[in-house]
Protein backbone atom coordinates (compact mmCIF):
# COMPACT_ATOMS: atom_id res chain seq x y z
CA UNK A 1 0.00 0.00 0.00
CA UNK A 2 2.90 2.32 0.77
CA UNK A 3 6.23 2.79 -1.01
CA UNK A 4 8.98 1.08 0.92
CA UNK A 5 11.90 3.14 2.11
CA UNK A 6 15.08 2.02 3.76
CA UNK A 7 14.49 0.15 7.00
CA UNK A 8 17.03 2.13 8.95
CA UNK A 9 16.72 0.07 12.11
CA UNK A 10 16.40 -3.38 10.61
CA UNK A 11 19.96 -4.60 11.15
CA UNK A 12 22.30 -3.70 13.99
CA UNK A 13 25.25 -3.83 11.58
CA UNK A 14 23.55 -1.22 9.40
CA UNK A 15 22.90 0.97 12.41
CA UNK A 16 26.58 0.94 13.31
CA UNK A 17 27.83 1.54 9.77
CA UNK A 18 25.41 4.17 8.47
CA UNK A 19 26.96 7.61 8.98
CA UNK A 20 23.71 9.48 9.64
CA UNK A 21 22.01 7.05 12.00
CA UNK A 22 22.34 7.29 15.73
CA UNK A 23 22.16 4.19 17.88
CA UNK A 24 18.44 3.75 18.67
CA UNK A 25 17.46 5.44 21.89
CA UNK A 26 17.58 3.02 24.80
CA UNK A 27 14.18 3.46 26.34
CA UNK A 28 13.48 2.12 29.84
CA UNK A 29 12.04 -1.36 29.74
CA UNK A 30 8.63 -2.02 31.22
CA UNK A 31 9.02 -4.55 34.03
CA UNK A 32 8.02 -7.97 32.76
CA UNK A 33 7.50 -6.64 29.25
CA UNK A 34 8.81 -9.76 27.53
CA UNK A 35 6.56 -12.33 29.22
CA UNK A 36 2.95 -12.91 30.14
CA UNK A 37 1.29 -10.55 27.68
CA UNK A 38 -1.04 -10.99 24.73
CA UNK A 39 0.10 -9.39 21.46
CA UNK A 40 -3.27 -7.64 21.20
CA UNK A 41 -5.87 -6.62 23.76
CA UNK A 42 -9.60 -6.69 23.04
CA UNK A 43 -11.45 -3.71 24.50
CA UNK A 44 -15.13 -3.64 23.56
CA UNK A 45 -15.26 -3.72 19.75
CA UNK A 46 -11.62 -2.96 18.90
CA UNK A 47 -8.28 -4.69 19.32
CA UNK A 48 -5.34 -2.65 20.56
CA UNK A 49 -1.70 -3.51 19.89
CA UNK A 50 0.18 -4.46 23.04
CA UNK A 51 3.55 -2.84 22.45
CA UNK A 52 6.20 -1.02 24.41
CA UNK A 53 7.41 2.34 23.17
CA UNK A 54 10.61 0.79 21.86
CA UNK A 55 8.75 -2.01 20.07
CA UNK A 56 6.49 0.48 18.32
CA UNK A 57 9.39 2.70 17.27
CA UNK A 58 11.21 -0.27 15.79
CA UNK A 59 8.15 -1.69 14.00
CA UNK A 60 6.77 1.53 12.55
CA UNK A 61 7.98 2.00 8.98
CA UNK A 62 4.69 2.52 7.12
CA UNK A 63 1.01 2.76 7.99
CA UNK A 64 -1.56 4.64 10.04
CA UNK A 65 -1.21 5.07 13.81
CA UNK A 66 -4.23 5.81 15.99
CA UNK A 67 -4.37 6.27 19.75
CA UNK A 68 -7.64 5.12 21.37
CA UNK A 69 -8.82 6.47 24.71
CA UNK A 70 -12.08 6.19 26.64
CA UNK A 71 -13.80 8.83 24.52
CA UNK A 72 -12.90 6.92 21.35
CA UNK A 73 -14.26 3.67 22.79
CA UNK A 74 -17.59 5.34 23.56
CA UNK A 75 -17.81 6.94 20.10
CA UNK A 76 -17.04 3.56 18.55
CA UNK A 77 -20.33 2.22 19.92
CA UNK A 78 -22.43 4.55 17.77
CA UNK A 79 -20.27 5.93 14.95
CA UNK A 80 -19.99 3.21 12.30
CA UNK A 81 -17.89 5.46 10.08
CA UNK A 82 -15.35 5.90 12.89
CA UNK A 83 -15.44 2.16 13.56
CA UNK A 84 -14.66 1.41 9.89
CA UNK A 85 -11.72 3.83 10.04
CA UNK A 86 -10.40 1.98 13.08
CA UNK A 87 -10.49 -1.24 11.09
CA UNK A 88 -8.14 0.37 8.54
CA UNK A 89 -5.50 1.37 11.10
CA UNK A 90 -2.14 -0.38 10.98
CA UNK A 91 -1.16 0.45 14.56
CA UNK A 92 -3.64 0.99 17.38
CA UNK A 93 -1.94 1.91 20.66
CA UNK A 94 -3.18 2.50 24.20
CA UNK A 95 -3.43 6.24 24.86
CA UNK A 96 -5.09 6.14 28.27
CA UNK A 97 -4.27 5.15 31.83
CA UNK A 98 -7.96 4.36 32.27
CA UNK A 99 -7.66 1.84 29.42
CA UNK A 100 -4.59 0.43 31.18
CA UNK A 101 -6.73 -0.18 34.27
CA UNK A 102 -9.55 -1.58 32.13
CA UNK A 103 -7.28 -4.09 30.41
CA UNK A 104 -5.91 -5.23 33.76
CA UNK A 105 -9.47 -5.62 35.04
CA UNK A 106 -10.16 -7.91 32.06
CA UNK A 107 -7.05 -9.96 32.76
CA UNK A 108 -5.18 -8.87 29.61
CA UNK A 109 -2.87 -6.06 30.77
CA UNK A 110 -0.99 -3.71 28.49
CA UNK A 111 2.78 -3.52 28.67
CA UNK A 112 2.84 0.26 28.56
CA UNK A 113 0.71 3.36 28.01
CA UNK A 114 1.64 4.96 24.69
CA UNK A 115 -0.15 8.27 24.56
CA UNK A 116 0.19 10.18 21.32
CA UNK A 117 1.66 13.14 23.18
CA UNK A 118 4.47 10.89 24.48
CA UNK A 119 4.89 8.84 21.33
CA UNK A 120 5.25 11.73 18.87
CA UNK A 121 8.23 13.41 20.60
CA UNK A 122 9.80 9.97 21.16
CA UNK A 123 9.41 9.28 17.43
CA UNK A 124 11.11 12.58 16.60
CA UNK A 125 14.00 11.85 18.97
CA UNK A 126 14.37 8.31 17.65
CA UNK A 127 14.68 9.59 14.07
CA UNK A 128 16.69 12.69 14.91
CA UNK A 129 19.50 11.66 12.55
CA UNK A 130 17.46 9.80 9.94
CA UNK A 131 17.09 12.06 6.87
CA UNK A 132 14.34 9.87 5.45
CA UNK A 133 11.98 11.06 8.20
CA UNK A 134 10.50 14.43 7.23
CA UNK A 135 7.33 15.43 9.04
CA UNK A 136 4.37 17.60 8.06
CA UNK A 137 2.31 18.94 10.99
CA UNK A 138 -1.39 19.56 10.30
CA UNK A 139 -3.52 21.01 13.06
CA UNK A 140 -3.92 23.58 15.79
CA UNK A 141 -5.26 27.11 15.72
CA UNK A 142 -3.66 29.62 13.31
CA UNK A 143 0.08 29.78 13.95
CA UNK A 144 0.17 26.95 16.48
CA UNK A 145 1.53 24.28 14.12
CA UNK A 146 4.27 26.64 12.94
CA UNK A 147 5.26 27.39 16.54
CA UNK A 148 5.40 23.66 17.25
CA UNK A 149 7.57 23.17 14.16
CA UNK A 150 10.07 25.76 15.28
CA UNK A 151 10.29 24.44 18.83
CA UNK A 152 10.70 20.80 17.82
CA UNK A 153 13.37 21.59 15.24
CA UNK A 154 15.25 23.81 17.68
CA UNK A 155 15.16 21.08 20.32
CA UNK A 156 16.40 18.37 17.95
CA UNK A 157 18.93 20.49 16.08
CA UNK A 158 17.63 19.68 12.60
CA UNK A 159 14.66 20.39 10.34
CA UNK A 160 12.80 17.14 11.06
CA UNK A 161 9.50 19.07 10.78
CA UNK A 162 9.73 20.39 7.24
CA UNK A 163 6.30 22.02 7.03
CA UNK A 164 3.34 22.95 9.21
CA UNK A 165 -0.17 24.19 8.55
CA UNK A 166 -3.18 25.11 10.66
CA UNK A 167 -6.36 24.41 8.65
CA UNK A 168 -9.52 26.47 8.93
CA UNK A 169 -12.37 25.41 11.19
CA UNK A 170 -14.55 22.90 9.35
CA UNK A 171 -11.91 22.30 6.67
CA UNK A 172 -12.79 18.61 6.47
CA UNK A 173 -16.16 19.52 4.90
CA UNK A 174 -14.61 21.76 2.24
CA UNK A 175 -13.53 19.66 -0.75
CA UNK A 176 -11.51 22.50 -2.25
CA UNK A 177 -9.54 23.10 0.94
CA UNK A 178 -8.92 19.38 1.34
CA UNK A 179 -7.62 19.22 -2.23
CA UNK A 180 -5.29 22.15 -1.53
CA UNK A 181 -4.04 20.43 1.61
CA UNK A 182 -3.28 17.24 -0.30
CA UNK A 183 -1.30 19.26 -2.86
CA UNK A 184 0.53 21.13 -0.10
CA UNK A 185 1.49 17.94 1.73
CA UNK A 186 2.59 16.18 -1.47
CA UNK A 187 4.69 19.16 -2.56
CA UNK A 188 6.37 19.50 0.85
CA UNK A 189 8.53 16.41 0.49
CA UNK A 190 7.26 15.04 3.80
CA UNK A 191 7.30 11.29 4.45
CA UNK A 192 5.34 11.48 7.72
CA UNK A 193 2.02 13.27 8.31
CA UNK A 194 0.93 14.09 11.87
CA UNK A 195 -2.67 15.31 12.08
CA UNK A 196 -3.96 16.91 15.28
CA UNK A 197 -7.48 18.23 14.79
CA UNK A 198 -9.39 16.12 17.31
CA UNK A 199 -11.17 12.78 17.12
CA UNK A 200 -12.85 11.44 15.11
CA UNK A 201 -12.13 14.20 12.58
CA UNK A 202 -8.39 13.52 12.32
CA UNK A 203 -8.72 9.75 11.92
CA UNK A 204 -11.43 10.11 9.28
CA UNK A 205 -9.47 12.71 7.33
CA UNK A 206 -6.41 10.48 7.20
CA UNK A 207 -8.45 7.45 6.14
CA UNK A 208 -10.21 9.34 3.34
CA UNK A 209 -7.09 11.01 1.94
CA UNK A 210 -4.20 8.61 2.55
CA UNK A 211 -4.57 7.06 -0.91
CA UNK A 212 -3.93 10.50 -2.43
CA UNK A 213 -0.77 11.07 -0.40
CA UNK A 214 1.64 8.74 -2.17
CA UNK A 215 4.73 10.40 -0.68
CA UNK A 216 3.63 9.74 2.89
CA UNK A 217 4.76 6.51 4.52
CA UNK A 218 3.50 7.10 8.06
CA UNK A 219 0.24 8.73 9.13
CA UNK A 220 -0.34 9.69 12.77
CA UNK A 221 -3.47 10.94 14.51
CA UNK A 222 -1.96 12.94 17.36
CA UNK A 223 -4.82 14.86 19.01
CA UNK A 224 -3.65 17.77 21.17
CA UNK A 225 0.04 16.93 20.68
CA UNK A 226 0.64 19.88 18.35
CA UNK A 227 -0.78 22.25 20.99
CA UNK A 228 1.39 20.63 23.66
CA UNK A 229 4.53 20.91 21.52
CA UNK A 230 3.79 24.56 20.77
CA UNK A 231 3.23 25.33 24.45
CA UNK A 232 -0.31 26.42 23.63
CA UNK A 233 -1.82 23.96 26.11
CA UNK A 234 -0.16 22.73 29.28
CA UNK A 235 0.08 18.97 29.71
CA UNK A 236 -0.88 17.33 32.97
CA UNK A 237 2.07 16.55 35.25
CA UNK A 238 3.40 13.04 34.69
CA UNK A 239 2.26 11.78 38.08
CA UNK A 240 -1.30 12.96 37.37
CA UNK A 241 -1.34 10.96 34.13
CA UNK A 242 0.15 7.92 35.84
CA UNK A 243 -2.68 7.69 38.36
CA UNK A 244 -5.34 8.09 35.68
CA UNK A 245 -6.45 11.62 36.60
CA UNK A 246 -5.43 13.50 33.48
CA UNK A 247 -9.12 13.83 32.59
CA UNK A 248 -9.70 15.85 35.79
CA UNK A 249 -6.68 18.05 35.09
CA UNK A 250 -8.02 18.78 31.61
CA UNK A 251 -11.52 19.58 32.93
CA UNK A 252 -10.05 22.07 35.40
CA UNK A 253 -8.07 23.71 32.58
CA UNK A 254 -10.96 23.86 30.09
CA UNK A 255 -14.25 23.16 31.93
CA UNK A 256 -16.58 24.76 29.41
CA UNK A 257 -15.41 22.52 26.58
CA UNK A 258 -14.59 19.28 28.39
CA UNK A 259 -16.89 18.77 31.39
CA UNK A 260 -19.65 17.10 29.38
CA UNK A 261 -17.26 14.83 27.50
CA UNK A 262 -15.69 13.42 30.64
CA UNK A 263 -18.55 13.57 33.13
CA UNK A 264 -21.48 12.64 30.88
CA UNK A 265 -20.56 11.32 27.44
CA UNK A 266 -17.82 8.92 28.53
CA UNK A 267 -19.54 7.37 31.56
CA UNK A 268 -21.18 4.51 29.58
CA UNK A 269 -17.71 3.05 29.05
CA UNK A 270 -17.68 1.58 32.54
CA UNK A 271 -20.96 -0.31 32.19
CA UNK A 272 -19.83 -1.57 28.77
CA UNK A 273 -16.56 -2.74 30.30
CA UNK A 274 -18.46 -4.65 32.98
CA UNK A 275 -20.53 -6.31 30.26
CA UNK A 276 -17.35 -7.43 28.54
CA UNK A 277 -16.01 -8.82 31.82
CA UNK A 278 -19.24 -10.80 32.27
CA UNK A 279 -19.14 -12.00 28.67
CA UNK A 280 -22.36 -10.30 27.58
CA UNK A 281 -20.98 -7.35 25.57
CA UNK A 282 -21.83 -7.37 21.86
CA UNK A 283 -20.47 -4.98 19.24
CA UNK A 284 -23.26 -2.86 17.74
CA UNK A 285 -21.76 -3.30 14.26
CA UNK A 286 -21.18 -7.05 14.10
TrEMBL record:
Q: State the InterPro entries in the record.
A: WecG_TagA_CpsF
Which keywords does the record carry? Answer: Glycosyltransferase, Transferase
One Pfam family, short name:
Glyco_tran_WecG
Name the domain of life this protein comes from.
Answer: Bacteria
Q: Would the keyword Glycosyltransferase turn up in this protein's UniProt record?
A: yes
Q: Which GO terms describe its molecular function?
A: hexosyltransferase activity
Name this protein carries in UniProt:
Glycosyltransferase
Amino acid sequence: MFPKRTNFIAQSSFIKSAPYVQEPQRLPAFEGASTGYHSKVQLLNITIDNLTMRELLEKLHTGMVITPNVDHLVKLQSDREFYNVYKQADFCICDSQILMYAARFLGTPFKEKLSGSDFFPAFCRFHRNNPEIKIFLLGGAPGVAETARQKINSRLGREIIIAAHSPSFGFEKDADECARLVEMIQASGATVLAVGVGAPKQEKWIAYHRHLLSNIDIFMAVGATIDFEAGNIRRAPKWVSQIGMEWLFRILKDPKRLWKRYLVDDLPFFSLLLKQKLGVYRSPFE
